[in-house]
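Model it.
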Amino acid sequence: MKIKTLAPKVNMLIPALGLVILASSFLSITALSVGMLATDSKYENNPWFLETHSEVKYCFDFSAGELSVSVDDVRKNFSQALEFWNRELDNVQSNEVLQNTDHWTEVECGHPNLDLMIAFDWNHLASHLSSDYAHLKDEYSLLIREKYDPVNLNADGILFIQKDIHSSVVPDKFWSQNRNLYFLMVHQLGFVFGFHGPRWGIPAFEFVKKLSSNHIPSYLNPLPTLLSSVIEFQFCDREKIVEFTSVSSEFKNPCLQLKGPNAEGKYFLFLKDLGGSKSKELGYFKFGKTFKQRTKNPIELALPKEQKVYAGQIGKLMGPGIPFFEGNGQYFKTEKKGQDIYLQISPLELKVISLKKKETQSVFSFNVDDLFDLSEKKRNPASRGDRTKAAIFIRERNPEKAELFLRGLPAQPQE
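Modeled.
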């Protein structure tokens, strides 16, 4: 991946035409179609830059100057986010939609052929937008597609990120914590590369809203693959892990890690200590001779009639998506004997169902939605019949109800 950098000068924004705005905040996540979008609304999900766009020129507008991360760190996080998508898209086979992930060059913001501006000053940005957009000033981040070329299939626009010093919107020093700035840039660049649709994980529209959840960072470190058929991810929810396997006191921060398949089609499961060196193999899953494979939420490129990139083609081209595998298989705790199971695996989920003669029961079920869901109902331990944990859960939200619950009086756990 070739990324050229430059110390940019601050420059005014180009007036917005045909805007597509993707807004992200903790309070609301909004997808808006505004301005002159009627002329190209059916192309709003198209990738911004194809390989035929030989070089993507981007700049940073640091005029706000109120960030908890340095200018160099901003550039570093952006480069790493580009590298993530470069790896994801370059390693996919049978990809009809070829985006430009390789040739990105930082230029001054006054460049006549600027493709993408990364801006941090809302007042600077707002001076070039209609007053109709004033309500968006409290968003954590906005991705604004200014215009789209239906002939050459390229877009240009702005990635806006709120400052986090002296901000009434973003918590103080938010972007310097937990790699939040990096995750945000990966999330927003996913839309630039045409990755829409999943409700789980980092590409989801609600990702930024849920970025503050304490359960998210352990899943995102390291950032899991999304488009590769070779799957590797981990999650570190002790309460859910102990439902599947015993965890000794040696594991202070237990995590389950899934890796596979290897050359023999095995998906290995490990118990690891987050931040430590302890690791224990729990066995492996393996599909039978036949299983289903499909792609979820593929990238789509809608072809305008006037386009000249794919001569003679009409309709849509399909790009990569999230691989999903399911079918009968076995779970081996040892090499001697396997347990018959029905298995579902993707980079965002794992579900293992035991196949017994008398009954079918779930052995283990996990998806990233478990970590991103902030609803109290889903995480309420009272649903598992654990009165002590339930009382703690309720006390954090309503002390009076907690006391009634502990005394056995008719008070229902708060949902």
